[in-house]
Each structure stands twice: as structure tokens, then as C-alpha cells.
Design goal:
heterodimer; A: about 140 residues; alpha/beta; Rossmann fold; five-stranded parallel β-sheet; B: about 300 residues; 3 domains; 12 helices
């Protein structure tokens, strides 16, 4: 395959992938970052153990279209709504916020009520996540 | 975009959300930014533009973080632009520089932005200098630009930055590496990072010996400093060396060299846009692919008035 220098002309969707809280496993987040890169997204990865404030500040400075939160620790009911609050509180009303990881079915509805647009459990195909982001990320100039 | 014009005064006034939006418009080459360009340029306040370059894994991100910490201690507001490579196939990118910079995330006086190189091969993106100018206008000084991990030819940063810091690590190569043309040649300051590793002193000594009296760009060889970014060792001295270089970088002669490079870059970008908008662009590509015309003649035809 020849590198296509024309490919970069359209503005890629910018995605922040963050790991809130204390769990130390980020293989899934890295696989997703890599997969989204291959789908043509610009992915900013924050690394482990981020507070809701740090994630919101990063999303603000990077002006991302999507924030993807990976959480395996079980603290999602506490952390995810706080992250939504912090992001919306900075005036980013149109940023798509999605989550992935180990989240019991019973928690999905309350998390959606709290502003998490979609939740991707184990086994989700990266192509499906990419399609969801493309369809739901805010329209950009 | 209709909401673009008010962004600049808001960004200059300290609104971080507006600044972030403005940087996106600049990066995407939005038409509205074309009209903003003169205003951004006029709003700049003369921030020290510092490039940080070096091979992948040399510790550039950690060094930038440590430098930002040092400048914050000195009461300066720090702008950071960190460039990572875009995939030439998909246009996608993974930008991981934030991993090492998150300690500054909540500091209102540090603004850090990741940029994908978007097809540029010189180690920075085409719009990087403009993003740096916007950070300057928003009263960040210095503005630290971290390039993609550079090999021997990604020298674009040295054309734009006032002070270029080249980050090396101990035992990177023999003495021949130090006298090859390329990265070290553009250094205004050299940081031998990871200086807690064995061989750091020796590497610095070798570099000093090879760069002394090398001629080329400057009469005086660049200072070579030992740093350990993870502990902060040597970072204050590095900041001092960067600050000291500012005077040299601000000479009328140096300013002219940078201005010429900016103009050359703008001319190249303008020509590219004009050629791509030409009705015969697609047919020219086809003709070159079929060996009916050579690329240089085709380019001349596309650029004829």
C-alpha cells in the first residue's frame, strides 16, 4: 500500500481516551486507542489514574469531540457522573462521552441518565465503536 | 464558521475553552482563521518559542514536563505543543505526550495541546507555528514545542523555533554520529538526558569535543548539559541556558532567517492549495501515473497564472 498523502486533508475526529480512578489495567484502553488510530481518529491517551478534574481539563485543552472512559475498578457509579459534570461544567455541552469496561447491566440505565451516551462492554468490536463515534460525534467545521 | 471571530479576544482574555476552539480551527485550516491570521499575528507578545527535539524515547515529554515545572516556579505561564506522528495510511494518530504531562493538567497557567503531524514529514505539523503564535497571544511565555521523535532529518523545528533544544541520551552512538550533518547541527542547546545512566559524562564529553570548533551555523558551540528529567536534576540549568540563548535568537540576523523560513513555508503551502484547486489537478495526477508527463512539468502547468 502506498501512503496516501491526501488522506490527512479532512479533519479527523479527536478522541480523548482516559482511565479514571485507581485501576491499573490499561491494555483495553491501549488496544482501543490503537484500533481508533487505524480507523483514522486522532487519539489522545492520558494514561492511568486520572481524576475527573484532570480528565475534564485535558478534554478542554485538547478540544476533543469524544471522551472515551475505560473503567474496570467498579467505581463507575461514582466516577463517571462526576466526569460528565466536570466536562459539562467547563462549557463542553456537545462533547460525546462514552464508557467501556466492566459495567453491570443494571448500572447502564442510571449511567445513561447521568449523561454517558453509550457503554461498550467486553467483546465490543472496535469497528462498531468507531462507527458509533463517527455517527454521534458533534459536527465540526 | 460564524462563531470564529469572537474566539480570539476571548482566548487572549484568558478563556481556555475559546483558546482550545481557536487552536482547532487553526489546525483544521478553517476558512475563518484566514481572516484571523493578521489579528493573531498582531496579538502576539514576543513569547520565547523553544523547540524540543530528539530521537524517540530520549525523554522529550518528561523533559518538557520538568521544564514547565521549572518555569512555573519562576512565575512564567507555559504553553506546550506536543506533536506526534499521523499514520500516512489512515491519517489517524495516537498522542501519548499527555501521559507524562498530566501533573500540569489542572494548572491554569499551563496550556498543553497535542497535535498530530497530519502528513508533514519535518517533525511538526504545517500549522504548528500558528498554534504557537496563538498561545503567545494568549500570554503563554515560553511556548515549548515538542517535535515527533526525530531521526537525522526532521529539522523543521529549527527553522521556526528561536531556541532549539536537542535531547540526546547516553551511549546513543559513536563519535561519527556527532559530526554527521543533521539534528545536532541545529542545536542551540544540547541536553544529554537520562544522565543517571552510566556513560552520561563520557557522552557529554564526546559531544563537547566533536561540536567544539565545528564551525557551521555558529561561532560558538552550543552548551551541552546533563539532565535527568525524572528527578529534575539539571533542569534549572537547562532553563537558564534556554533563557540565555534568547538574546542570540533575537538578533536581527536570526529574525530574518526565521522570517525567510516562514515565508518559504507559506509560499509552499499556498502553491499546494492553488495546484490542488486547479481543474486539471486530477488529470495531471493521472498523466503522471501513466508516464505521459513528468511531475515537475505538470506542477509548472498547474501553477501558471
Amino acid at each position: 500500500m502506498t501512503a496516501d498523502a491526501g488522506q490527512e486533508r479532512a479533519s479527523p475526529i479527536r478522541v480523548l481516551i482516559a482511565k479514571p480512578g485507581l485501576d491499573g489495567h490499561d491494555r483495553g484502553a491501549k488496544v482501543l486507542a490503537r484500533g481508533l488510530r487505524d480507523e483514522g481518529f486522532e487519539v489522545i491517551y492520558t494514561g492511568l489514574r486520572q481524576t475527573p478534574e484532570m480528565i475534564a481539563d485535558a478534554a478542554e485543552q485538547e478540544d476533543v469531540d469524544v471522551v472515551g472512559l475505560s473503567i474496570l475498578s467498579g467505581a463507575h457509579m461514582t466516577l463517571l457522573p462526576r466526569i460528565v459534570e466536570q466536562i459539562r461544567g467547563r462549557g463542553m455541552e456537545d462533547v460525546l462521552i462514552a464508557a467501556g469496561g466492566i459495567i453491570p447491566d443494571a448500572d447502564i440505565a442510571p449511567l445513561k441518565d447521568a449523561g454517558i451516551a453509550e457503554i461498550f462492554g467486553p467483546g465490543t468490536r472496535i469497528g462498531d465503536i468507531a462507527r458509533y463515534f463517527r455517527e454521534h460525534a458533534r459536527a465540526r467545521s | 464558521m460564524a462563531d470564529a471571530p469572537p474566539l480570539l479576544p476571548a482566548a487572549v482574555g484568558g478563556d481556555r475553552r475559546a483558546l482550545a476552539r481557536l487552536l482547532t480551527l487553526i489546525e483544521n485550516g478553517d476558512q475563518a482563521t484566514r481572516e484571523l491570521l493578521p489579528k493573531i499575528f498582531a496579538a502576539t507578545r514576543g513569547a520565547h518559542l523553544v523547540g524540543i527535539t530528539g530521537p524517540p524515547g530520549a525523554g522529550k515529554s518528561t523533559l518538557v514536563t520538568a521544564l514547565a515545572r521549572e518555569y512555573r516556579r519562576r512565575g512564567r505561564r507555559v504553553g506546550i505543543v506536543a506533536v506526534d506522528p499521523s499514520s500516512p495510511y489512515t491519517g489517524g494518530a495516537i498522542m501519548g505526550d499527555r501521559i507524562r504531562m498530566m501533573e500540569h493538567a489542572a494548572d491554569r497557567d499551563v496550556f498543553m495541546r497535542s497535535m498530530a503531524s497530519r502528513g508533514e514529514l519535518g517533525g511538526i505539523a504545517a500549522t504548528t507555528w500558528l498554534v504557537a503564535a496563538a498561545l503567545d497571544a494568549a500570554r503563554y511565555d515560553p511556548v515549548l514545542v515538542e517535535t515527533v521523535g526525530a531521526g537525522q532529518a526532521e529539522l523543521e523545528i529549527a527553522r521556526l523555533a528561536e531556541t532549539t533544544v536537542v535531547v540526546e541520551v547516553p551511549e546513543m552512538g559513536d563519535e561519527i554520529q556527532a559530526i554527521k550533518a543533521g539534528l545536532l547541527e541545529v542545536a542551540d542547546v544540547v541536553a544529554v538526558n537520562k544522565a543517571d545512566r552510566p556513560g552520561a559524562e563520557r557522552s557529554a564529553r564526546q559531544l563537547r569535543a566533536m561540536l567544539a570548533g565545528a564551525g557551521g551555523r555558529f561561532a560558538a558551540p552550543p552548551p551541552i548539559l546533563l539532565t535527568t528529567a525524572t528527578t529534575g536534576e539539571g533542569i534549572a540549568a537547562l532553563a537558564d541556558a534556554i533563557d540565555a540563548d534568547r538574546k542570540r535568537a533575537r538578533s536581527p540576523e536570526q529574525a530574518r532567517i526565521r522570517a525567510r523560513n516562514q515565508l518559504l513555508g507559506a509560499v509552499a503551502e499556498g502553491s499546494r492549495r492553488r495546484a490542488e484547486a486547479h481543474p486539471q489537478w486530477d488529470s495531471s495526477v493521472g498523466q503522471i501515473a501513466e508516464h505521459q508527463i513528468d511531475p515537475i512539468t505538470a506542477a509548472e502547468r498547474l501553477l501558471e497564472a
